[in-house]
Amino acid sequence: MRVSIEVNGATVAEEVPDRTLLVHYLRDNAGLTGTNIGCDTTSCGACTVLLDGESVKSCTVLAAQADGHEVTTVEGLATDEGLHPVQRAFRAQHGLQCGFCTPGMMLATVSLLQENPKPSRGEVRAALEGNLCRCTGYHNIVNAVIDASGQEVAQ
Amino acid sequence: MSIVGTRVVRVEDEKLITRGGTYVDDLREDALTGAVHAVFVRSPIAHARISGIDVEQARNAPGVVAVFTAADIDLEPAAAGPVREPYLAGDVVRYVGEAVALVLTEQRYQLADAAELVDVDYDPLDAVASVDAALAGDTLLFPEHGSNVVRVHGDRDFDDSVFDECEVVLTERILNQRVAPAPLEGRGASVAWGEDGRVTLWLSSQNAQQARTEIAEALGLEEDRVRVIAPDVGGGFGAKIGAAPEAVVLGWAARRAGRAVRWTESRSENLTGMTHGRAQQNIVTIGGKRDGTVLAYRLEVVQDAGAYPRALLLPTLTELMAPGVYRFPVVQTVSRAVVTTTTPIGAYRGAGRPEATAAVERAMDLFAAEIGMDPAEVRRANFIRPEEFPYTTPTGGAYDTGEYPAALDRVLAAAGYAELREEQRMRRAAGDPVALGLGIATYVEITGGDAGGESGRVDVHPDGSITVYTGSSPHGQGLATTFTMLVSDRLGVPPEKITVRHGDTDEIPRAIGTFGSRSLQLGGSAVRQAADEVLAQARELAADLLEAAPGDVELDAGSGVWQVRGAPGSATFGWGRIASESAEGVLSADVWFGEGRPTFPFGAHLAVVEVDTETGKVVVRRIVALDDAGPVLNPLAFDGQRHGGLGQGIAQALLEVMQYDQDGNPTTATLADYSFVTAPELPDFELVGMATPTTRNLLGVKGIGEAATIGSTPAVHNAVVDALAHRGVRHLDMPATPLRVWTALNEARKAD
Amino acid sequence: MIPAKFAYRRAATVDEALALLAEHGDDAKLIAGGHSLLPLMKLRFAAPEVVVDIAPLTELKFVRLDGDEVVIGALSRYHDLQRDPVLAQHAPLLAHAAGTVGDPQVRHRGTIGGSLAHADAAADLPAVVLATGGTLVARGPSGERRIPAREFFLGPFTTPLEPDELLTEIRLPSRAGLGWAFEKFTRRAIDWAIVGVAVTGHAVGLINMGGTPLRATATERALAAGTPAAEAALLAAEDTAPPDEPHATPDYRRHLARVLTARALARAEAS
């Protein structure tokens, strides 16, 4: 079927098999490989993107279901004015190592901060329960989210 | 002020946070245009004879380019003898997940459809799903070998008299369970043969060069006919060392099919196809006096090697590190490795050392509990003392430097150990159903243990920029930043003019790679050595330009210019000008740092846990960790390594285990079933600093990649047992799941 | 991992959805949030020939009060439920439990109707709805019918819904002012409940204690007879048949059911 999605502000319209997953549409049709695939059971969150502004796991959404909707990927976070505060915070707080979970982790963070602009550390941990990271032990990811929320990071 | 030792944000991050890394599956190289996609058909049965494989239907499925089985592959397995791992199983499958066929299709979405049509007839054989079953030997994986025991090191006929003088002797079986490395990026490879007969493999690898050598040998090619490129790699943790058999098959298949090939494994495939780690069943015997002195320690290791022995040196490392930080007068060790019908075992963050530490640290706590002494006191009574270094252990560990008592003292002080013990006493007295537990682990480990050296090259270009080539192969560790700092500091060149390159065998033909926490001490030393050689060359050239004796010129480290010493206002020359004066137009030093001997990082961890004795659930409240790996180049990256290690170490103690049922079926083969540690299950980490240098490399540093993993697992494990000690629990296996804790409490209640 | 081939059809109205179901019968599956169905399809445990997308049916996304009943549109997402002010007052147990399902990403997609129709005994909301009581409303070719919650969970993944029927509404009696508690015991926060207990008033729902969500009827009877909560909780595992898994044996689950029921009843009383 023909699927048209506004990805990072630009319309991507492609004819794809009905069973195409959103994550593959983004990677193969939109050519945006920043969104990674880390599992096949909706467990890891590496493929997290924003669908109409809310975090979703793009491995568990059909491209067809996103037809006519808006998607934001890691490539769409920065603007002409520079990096998104979440991107800046992940770098400043060393919230990433190998980088594989990072796009999904950052988009989950963007969604979290929209819903809860000043989360506690415990709330951050709870809100990132669906995003796995093997490198950081999450400590600096929590720091990054706190930093991105404009709160002081306890050292 | 030098940049070294300061917190520097990573040069790697800009790309990773704006458009994501370029992992194997992200490659859009011209050479891969039109590549076919690959999937391995894997055995769903642990142990079976293959009586037939029908690929006809699959070959005729839409988009199928080729289906290959063992019958097609004309490659000799590397190992000799009866215990050999085939590239694709032909006669017998020996674990769930073993590859039996390879399917190539035009489009990715056609893979699973076609793979379903490969019809394999299996005649089931009995599974050998545990170490005990392997040792019993009723079913043999390799009947021609005559035994499931594939390696024995040492003699099991111990001299028992070493325990004669002991007032207390304890024996316990300590299980170090099988876990999945599970880097967030699974394995992947892309292969393209050139018209010149050279093959390029893009491989998610910790060391492209070793992979290159293995693939060349397997495919019967000269090394220079094979180029391996490790693009961005999404974590490895030991499980991406060298070339997996799949990479060889893909290289072969691309040649046979005449097409470029790309392969990305699924997570479910990864959890049975990628090597697992740990998987030791150990028996410790510890004997000593009631004053806390240990007189003798024995460690008997049985390594579950999985279906095919890929890493038989792991138990040897466990034996080497058996006595840990203690000056035990007598240490006896032996190890055996057995094959089972499970996924092969390989290196996983720590690789043999965590098992040694877990065993001895549990043994010390068992001993402490038996003689009624605080576990901190028992450790103090047995530490190797600072003045005894260098110290060689009875198992041959040639320790360089250590401050074990100070490490423990600092951690206990930072944690408020005495107050915590008091809180524990009061809560126990009050009958609090939530039990507080304190667990100590003091550890030493070996890094750069392979002692194989590393390559480093520094090029200074006429524009004043610098390229650093390293044989280390970072995949998250931030070495591009660290090595940039090293060179910037040494040559006085700002970081933004320095580029670090790694992971391409055409650029860097000779290297060992990144594993065993070796990269800074060996790879970093090589870079430092190359920078020093460049410095020496530059001095000569600068002397010519400045018309002075080499001894009279100096590099101003702040501004990065060469000048005549003590002649303010005279001429100066920058690096670009110096480089253009060199004969080749590029100032270059290409070195092999070969004299680096293994180093021995150490530390102390304290875990504070709370156990809900009604449900058995354990929550880690605090972890206070000191990891001493010598001087710190970039605290940001250094602490990041510690954090990651803590996360994985705690995970092993409480959550993670790769489990098989009696028939050898994995029951944790997806991330929905495997309890990969998540953010809500971990506390904030409390890090304590200490830096004891080594003399064994140019930087005085030890490795930090694995240290915190090694300390944290037994700290948490000990804390769980400590929490339950007053209810009669003496030991329980990892991971300390709620069910295990509840069961242990019930058994202790019954025994009471 | 990708699903087997299927045809995607999108319904813009309930009638359109029903027409598509009528057309394709057993070959069709409804998809809303897709977080039960798509994982199964990716692992190829499910392979429908037609997938009918009902996510666009905004007419089924609502929560409203109707007399002393809370009416919830089947396509209300967990994310909506956990923040809904009407639910917060009249069905706080449901609102709270919805906030513990999966993770935020799952809650942005998953729907209450999807969860109930999937009828997984390990899921949170079926036991909550069972404990709350009320009625489920389904529409089919012959019109609308109401199914009491007690008659909805027939067996593992089995409900009275016909292949050509669509769950449209969940009608719950208002529990405003009643004590409630939700005890969900997991290894990790992200996990399915090993055992869960949902209490509203003297009603006790059990998660993962059998092939379907259950009511702890022995406990409820004891409570009704005036037995103290701590004592009544000891009966929570009666007439259950909990599953056996490596990290949770039936005995352990029965023990947990008793412990968690005691905690939930105490918390509900205090609330």
From TrEMBL, chain A:
Gene3D superfamilies: 3.10.20.30, [2Fe-2S]-binding domain. The lineage of its organism: Bacteria, Bacillati, Actinomycetota, Actinomycetes, Pseudonocardiales. The keyword Transmembrane does not apply. SUPFAM superfamilies: 2Fe-2S ferredoxin-like, CO dehydrogenase ISP C-domain like. PANTHER family: OXIDOREDUCTASE WITH IRON-SULFUR SUBUNIT. Keywords: 2Fe-2S, Iron, Iron-sulfur, Metal-binding, Oxidoreductase. This is (2Fe-2S)-binding protein. The keyword Protease does not apply. Signal peptide: none annotated. InterPro entries: 2Fe-2S-bd, 2Fe-2S-bd_dom_sf, 2Fe-2S_ferredoxin-like_sf, 2Fe-2S_ferredoxin-type, Beta-grasp_dom_sf, Diverse_Oxidoreductases. Residues 1-77 form the 2Fe-2S ferredoxin-type domain. It comes from the Bacteria.
UniProtKB/TrEMBL annotation, chain B:
Keywords: Molybdenum, Oxidoreductase. It comes from the Bacteria. The keyword RNA-binding does not apply. Signal peptide: none annotated. InterPro entries: Ald_Oxase/Xan_DH_a/b (IPR000674), Ald_Oxase/Xan_DH_a/b_sf (IPR036856), Ald_Oxase/xanthine_DH-like (IPR016208), AldOxase/xan_DH_MoCoBD1 (IPR008274), AldOxase/xan_DH_MoCoBD2 (IPR046867), AldOxase/xan_DH_Mopterin-bd_sf (IPR037165). Residues 19-126 form the Aldehyde oxidase/xanthine dehydrogenase a/b hammerhead domain. SUPFAM superfamilies: CO dehydrogenase molybdoprotein N-domain-like (SSF54665), Molybdenum cofactor-binding domain (SSF56003). This is Xanthine dehydrogenase family protein molybdopterin-binding subunit. It comes from Amycolatopsis ultiminotia.
Automatic annotation (TrEMBL), chain C:
Keywords: FAD, Flavoprotein, Oxidoreductase. Gene3D superfamilies: 3.30.465.10, CO dehydrogenase flavoprotein, C-terminal domain, Uridine Diphospho-n-acetylenolpyruvylglucosamine Reductase, domain 2. Residues 1-177 form the FAD-binding PCMH-type domain. Signal peptide: none annotated. InterPro entries: CO_DH_flav_C, CO_DH_flav_C_dom_sf, Diverse_Substr_Oxidored, FAD-bd_PCMH, FAD-bd_PCMH-like_sf, FAD-bd_PCMH_sub1, FAD-bd_PCMH_sub2, Mopterin_DH_FAD-bd. SMART domains: CO_deh_flav_C. PANTHER family: XANTHINE DEHYDROGENASE SUBUNIT C-RELATED. This is Xanthine dehydrogenase family protein subunit M.
